[in-house]
């Protein structure tokens, strides 16, 4: 016998996480974000490494409630975001990494497709950047901010890995922009999506669509 | 300054992982799989928790080289798999979780969509199951094997979480079927995709498409 009802599984999972989490200083909203990263990775270390710059959650929820434009670096992050819930809130989510023009631009400029897709996205206002994989995307967002080409309301930046990931997140935390990042090597597109979903569910005031 | 060439980043990343990994008993092929799970999560714990049942890698590569049918439980796992490389090897990958019929079937039978999508997939032979999220999908695969409804050549089973995930993987390891799983709570759709990609790259004999 095993549980077969998705929401039952999720509630039970969140209860277990909260019980195992032990002492912490998270606000109730911060807890929702941290819990979901643990839920999506099975890794309690996220308790120690999620970094929420003050106001990031509030700004994210406000943007989502207002109907915003979200851009991800990977199709995996795109896939992991609850688009049914997002549509109800009149938000859009886009990922350009697989577009033919991005391949061309990246080759032409000698940059990563992730960078080229950030340039492409920044042709219009991006409210929330969701970066799960590419340190180069995060660096590019910083450059675009410095060049006044984009003014995001929130950056969710959790690239994973050993080459520039930790540094790219440190770099983004240096900006005067609300951000949710991780300290160190851990992260990923699944983590990025889980953070967006945590914000979406809070913005939905419990009227979550399954 | 930061690295902007994808393959350069990846090679450097793998070098760092290999250097940090320390002593191990992995075969060269096992190492490729374990390294890629660490690469995709930033988490060295995968060194200790990846469980490769004997012959699983060889069977996986053989199936992929022969042109096989792969089915995933999530669109995230589907997204993370290198489909360009897969197409060159005449393999297909499918995910049914979002299909209208799956919603209907799940509701009708009172089961998860993940389970319903495994039932649906098993109408034809599935060579490799790739389960990154749903313990219920993994349990269902076991049931379908017991009912002689499916005979996979390899099961990649790395559901994540605190409700049945560890148990579902333990359950699948009990079958006389090649499997690559993780011990405990960790895993995820990104990890599942990374394992498939490791096999694809080995099957491509270094002729990897970027």
From TrEMBL, chains A, B:
It comes from the Bacteria. Residues 8-202 form the Cobalamin biosynthesis precorrin-8X methylmutase CobH/CbiC domain. The keyword Isomerase applies. GO terms for biological process: cobalamin biosynthetic process. InterPro entries: Cbl_synth_CobH/CbiC, CobH/CbiC_sf. GO terms for molecular function: precorrin-8X methylmutase activity. SUPFAM superfamilies: Precorrin-8X methylmutase CbiC/CobH. Transmembrane segments: none annotated. Pathway: Cofactor biosynthesis; adenosylcobalamin biosynthesis. Keywords: Cobalamin biosynthesis, Isomerase. Gene3D superfamilies: Cobalamin biosynthesis CobH/CbiC, precorrin-8X methylmutase. Belongs to the CobH/CbiC family. This is Precorrin-8X methylmutase. It comes from Clostridium tagluense.
